[in-house]
Amino acid sequence: MLDLGETHTFLVDQLVKDLGLRLSSSHxxxxxxxxxxxxxxxxxxxxxxxxxxxxxxxxxxxxxLND
Length: 67
What we know:
With 67 residues, the protein is mainly β. Helices cover 9% and strands 49% of the residues.
């Protein structure tokens, strides 16, 4: 799952290994509506993303979505 939101780009942690991304540690917490704040798994920087004909690089927050 990849969410290209208006403020941040999120990537599910299960894809980090599959895509061969480097994971950096982070002290960022995120809060889901009506839930407590969770520490993100980490950050992956300068990830190449292609959507249809649009291409670019993004820093992504890696999150665990097992909940």
